[in-house]
Design a protein that fits this description.
Blueprint: H1 6-33, H2 38-46, H3 65-78, H4 80-84, H5 87-99, H6 102-113, E1 118-121, E2 136-140, E3 143-150, E4 161-167, E5 173-179, E6 185-187, E7 204-211, E8 216-218, H7 229-258, H8 275-304, H9 310-342, H10 354-363, H11 369-382
Parallel strand pairs: 1-4
Antiparallel strand pairs: 2-3, 3-7, 4-5, 5-8, 6-7
Helix pairs in contact: 1-3, 3-7, 3-8, 5-7, 7-8, 7-9, 7-10, 8-9, 9-10, 9-11
């Protein structure tokens, strides 16, 4: 169980709330201009919050997954792009904790505690599926070299260290860390998605990039044992969705109170007295409360459960999967209902309220919830454990 003192939690949440309020002021403008937002990312990372899950034995606060989830949703409500950028940073902490040598943990955790930012370049496009990785890590002339092309490389433009997922000489997936300024590596800001614009999730090109052997850890091995790496990764994604949902509902309420008009047949004096609008807000708040409660519950379970068997891991993965489905559903519903409840005026480009729907629609595509629903059904109906990877 993660032991977290109340002052630690209070300070972390307070810091996150302050950062969120600052981010919120410029979020719409930065979305409209596809701003790289280096200042905002640096402010978030320099707060020390990016080290919150480092184990105490390596000098970290070890605040646990519930704190990570709560802080992520605060940031995501203000700007879900900024909240998504350190997702792979926390994923890397989990990877290191699971499979790195003690000397590697000491080195990389010290880097993070010193304020260094990490990001991962794993995904590629053009292959058969997401697991079809063509990037190679080969041993040449006594050293290791990376060659390949990555996409959806969220956060790499901001990172000090980049973790590359690649196949070694015998086809086993490895995770190689290289400094951002490594010769032969080029990071492009060519992400063109209509949502999550500020993640800069573009292309990373690797041309004979030299890798220090001490900076290579196993990747496949991390999913062979009972480490909740995939569940923890999905917990962060669900927290981002919940943050989008919360902001969408708050924006809807604000617009209804300040600007929207009641429908002509309602006989109401103001939109906030329109019975169908009242019911619509009530429905959103009920669904949000259920999703948020489930997310808090499973985050606590991740902190408190001693995972020692395949059954332990399967149960937690399914529980997080349920939270992710609920979070995805409320993010899409709330960001869509914003316009149905607020009315035509809310679609004005100058308001940029559609960024909430664009962000929800884009982020929830990260991994399809239809496969989570299937995995959940297989688990409860047929006793089939979900597969082990980043996506459940």
């Amino acid at each position: 169980m993660k032991s977290m003192t109340s002052p630690q939690l209070s300070k972390s949440l307070s810091d996150a709330n302050d950062i969120a309020q600052w981010l919120r002021h410029s979020a719409s403008e930065r979305d409209q201009t596809r701003h790289i937002s280096t200042e905002q990312v640096d402010a978030y990372s320099s707060s020390g919050l990016w080290a919150m899950t480092i184990p105490r034995e390596y000098g970290g606060p070890d605040l646990g997954y519930k704190a990570l989830s709560q802080i992520t949703r605060l940031i995501a409500a203000a700007d879900p792009s900024i909240a998504q950028i350190p997702r792979s940073h926390f994923h890397i902490i989990d990877l290191l904790n699971a499979v790195a040598l003690p000397s590697q943990k000491t080195f990389f955790f010290s880097e993070i505690l010193a304020g260094k930012k990490f990001a991962q370049a794993a995904s590629e496009i053009g292959g058969k599926n997401a697991a079809d990785i063509q990037t190679t890590l080969t041993q040449e002339r006594g050293g290791w070299r990376l060659n390949g092309k990555k996409y959806y490389a969220t956060g790499c433009i901001h990172a000090d260290w980049i973790g590359i997922v690649a196949k070694d000489d015998i086809g086993v997936f490895m995770h190689a860390f290289v400094p951002k300024n490594a010769p032969g590596m080029e990071i492009k800001t060519d992400w063109s998605g209509f949502g999550q614009k500020v993640t800069a999730s573009g292309t990373v090109l690797l041309n004979n990039v030299v890798v220090n052997e001490e900076h290579i850890i196993p990747f496949t091995e991390a999913f062979l044992d009972v480490h909740p790496i995939g569940a923890a990764s999905q917990l962060i994604h669900a927290s981002i969705d919940i943050g989008i949902a919360r902001e969408s509902i708050d924006e809807t309420i604000k617009y209804i109170r300040q600007t929207a008009r009641p429908w002509i047949d309602s006989s109401a004096e103001q939109a906030s007295d329109d019975p169908y609008i009242i019911s619509g807000i009530g429905d959103l708040e009920i669904r949000y409360a259920a999703a948020a409660a489930m997310l808090d519950q499973v985050a606590g379970e991740l902190d408190e459960t001693v995972i020692s068997t395949d059954a332990d891991l399967a149960r937690l993965s399914v529980r997080v999967g349920i939270a992710k489905v609920l979070a995805s559903d409320i993010a899409l519903l709330a960001s869509n209902q914003l316009f149905d409840l607020a009315g035509t005026g809310s679609t004005r480009e100058s308001l940029n309220l559609h960024r909430h729907w664009r962000n929800a629609r884009t982020h929830t595509l990260h991994d399809p919830v239809r496969w989570k629903v299937n995995a959940i059904g297989q688990y409860y109906l047929n006793g089939v454990y979900p597969k082990r990877h980043n996506y459940i």
